[in-house]
Amino acid sequence: MPSMADVRSSNRVRARLFIVLIAGACLAACTQTDPAIQIAVDSKLAADTATAPLKIDVNVTRGVVHLAGEVTSREQEKRAVEVARAVRGVKDVVDEMHLSDAVIAATVKRMLAADPVVGKIPIQVVSTNGYTVLSSAQTTKDDRTRAVEIAKKVDGVTLVEDGMR
Question: Where are any strands of DSSP class E within the chain?
């Protein structure tokens, strides 16, 4: 028959084992998996009125959320990051989003049209991934210099090509 000390020792071992198992179960239940975080971020972005119309790719690695895709404003971009950060289990958010080329081109056109010097000159604007090409057959050297400088200042423009003559 086991001694009373052996019974107590055995009970302590069982109690410690039980505590370790319960702590492990709590840790597993409290920790979000990457797929669960991705589903939660996708759901929250789809439910938010500012981000719902966007097509944002969401990838999660070790709790770090990567957001990629086009936005139509910096406010939408900021809101998407805020929404993702608020999801339980998210450790960080990496913003890989960019302004849409249509928005960039429209903004460049609007800025050129508002300028007193080049505003009356027909200048075509095409933007691809921020690379913006200005084209016109009715510009002088000074007009071209001014148009390029205006386009360079537009948010989202990464490079301006002067295709004007």
Answer: 56-61, 64-71, 92-99, 124-128, 131-136, 159-164
Query: What predicted TM-score, i.e. pTM, was given to this entire model?
Result: 0.74
CA dist 28 → 12, 25, 87, 89, 112 (Å): 24, 5, 17, 12, 57
56 has which bridge partners? Answer: 69
For 30, the token pair is 């409290």
Phi, psi values for residue 123, rounded to 5°: -125, 125
In the predicted structure, residue 16 carries a pLDDT above the cut 90: no
CA distance 157 to 96: 16
The pLDDT of 63-90, averaged and rounded, is: 97
Question: What CATH number has the domain spanning 32-99?
Answer: 3.30.1340.30
Residue 3's pLDDT band (boundaries 50, 70, 90)? low
Q: How remote is the C-alpha of 2 from its chain's centroid?
A: 65
Average pLDDT over residues 46-63: 96
Is the predicted pLDDT of residue 159 greater than 50, yes or no? yes
Break the chain into its structural domains and give their ranges: 1-31, 32-99, 101-164
CA torsion sign for 131, 81, 90, 33 is negative
